[in-house]
């Protein structure tokens, strides 16, 4: 099909708060080898977008400078070597960047078919959180049925995804959130216990249960030594973000004495091959959970593309439960 040469998009005009996001016009991307171009229906809004906007999370050298790490939409152009998808296919995809736009290019191996029964808006909520949770909690953290799993920020997009996936795997799920209402929402999704971190101590909660065998944390800072104390002997801590900073004093004697494992990862800088392997795992294991009704993305709110400023303000208020999306079409 004949594409327009230009598209509507939202760019980061300078490092700063949500107000630095501005509508713009950009050239429509041209697919490289193994890439598809997607006409974007919805783009997911994620914490890394805000970090990039603030100037603290630069995109990879070969990525679009536009924000947006996941989207749903329709395949409209194929690059050389594309074999799985055809023009007109409906997909959701992990992106190297550029999701806040009418069109985006991404490797075809990072795109997955939209699960039956999900809307385009729901599908846009899947890639970033599912890739992150599965690769860190399962592939890296080794989560198994029956284990005690603690995820911080249970009402976030990552948290609501982790609760449901872990529960579907047969784990016992514990979480923290910032209000009683958010805790109730987490328990409704399958958490055995949700603790309001403003009024309770997650270390004590996990000690009462025998300690966490796996913790998935995005808070960092003062949570790091507390996470170590909350782990069971031979427990694992997987760090995926640092909302309260990456530096902290930590007594490694406790790590050694109780044979703990501390690891972590970020998704965006990983190679295309690594992301392709994660995509294959997600399709093989998480998509059947969706088909079986064991997991469905939790939607918080939807904003038009030209209201990306309001979407970021909503995310940074921490008042949301689940995912925020931008409607592009």
TrEMBL record:
SMART domains: PKS_ER
Database matches in Gene3D superfamilies: Medium-chain alcohol dehydrogenases, catalytic domain, NAD(P)-binding Rossmann-like Domain
CDD domains: p53_inducible_oxidoreductase
Keywords, sorted A to Z: NADP, Oxidoreductase
Stated name of the protein: Zinc-binding dehydrogenase
Domain Enoyl reductase (ER): 16-326
Species in which this protein is naturally found: Paragemmobacter ruber
PANTHER family per UniProt: OS02G0805600 PROTEIN, QUINONE OXIDOREDUCTASE PIG3-RELATED
Keyword Oxidoreductase: yes
Pfam families in the cross-refs: ADH_N, ADH_zinc_N
InterPro entries in the record: ADH-like_C, ADH-like_N, ER, GroES-like_sf, NAD(P)-bd_dom_sf, Quinone_OxRdtase_PIG3
Signal sequence interval, chain numbering: none
NCBIfam families registered for this protein in UniProt: quinone_pig3 (TIGR02824)
Source taxonomy: Bacteria, Pseudomonadati, Pseudomonadota, Alphaproteobacteria, Rhodobacterales
């Amino acid at each position: 099909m004949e594409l327009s040469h230009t598209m509507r998009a939202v760019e980061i005009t300078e490092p700063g708060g949500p107000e630095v996001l501005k509508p713009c016009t950009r050239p429509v991307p041209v697919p490289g080898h193994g890439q598809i171009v997607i006409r974007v229906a919805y783009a997911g809004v994620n914490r890394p977008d805000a970090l990039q906007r603030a100037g603290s999370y630069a995109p990879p050298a070969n990525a679009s400078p536009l924000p947006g790490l996941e989207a749903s939409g329709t395949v409209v152009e194929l690059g050389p070597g594309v074999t799985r998808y055809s023009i007109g296919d409906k997909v959701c995809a992990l992106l190297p960047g550029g999701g806040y736009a009418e069109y985006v290019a991404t490797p075809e191996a990072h795109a997955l078919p939209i699960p039956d029964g999900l809307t385009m808006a729901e599908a846009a909520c899947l890639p970033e959180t599912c890739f992150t949770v599965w690769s860190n909690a399962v592939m890296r953290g080794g989560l198994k049925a029956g284990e005690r799993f603690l995820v911080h920020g249970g009402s976030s997009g990552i948290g609501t995804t982790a609760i449901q996936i872990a529960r579907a795997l047969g784990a016992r799920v514990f979480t923290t959130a910032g209000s009683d209402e958010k805790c109730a929402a987490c328990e409704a999704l399958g958490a055995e216990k949700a603790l309001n971190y403003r009024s309770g101590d997650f270390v004590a909660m996990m000690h009462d249960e025998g300690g966490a065998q796996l913790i998935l944390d995005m808070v960092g800072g003062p949570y790091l030594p507390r996470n170590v104390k909350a782990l069971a002997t031979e427990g694992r801590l997987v760090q995926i973000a640092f909302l309260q900073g990456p530096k902290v004093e930590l007594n490694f004697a406790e790590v050694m004495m109780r044979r703990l494992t501390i690891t972590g990862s970020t998704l965006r800088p990983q190679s295309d091959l690594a992301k392709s392997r994660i995509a294959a795992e997600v399709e093989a294991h998480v998509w059947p959970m969706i088909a079986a009704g064991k997991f469905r993305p939790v939607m918080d709110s939807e904003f038009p593309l030209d209201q990306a400023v309001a979407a970021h303000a909503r995310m940074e208020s921490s008042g949301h439960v689940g995912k925020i999306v931008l409607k592009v079409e």
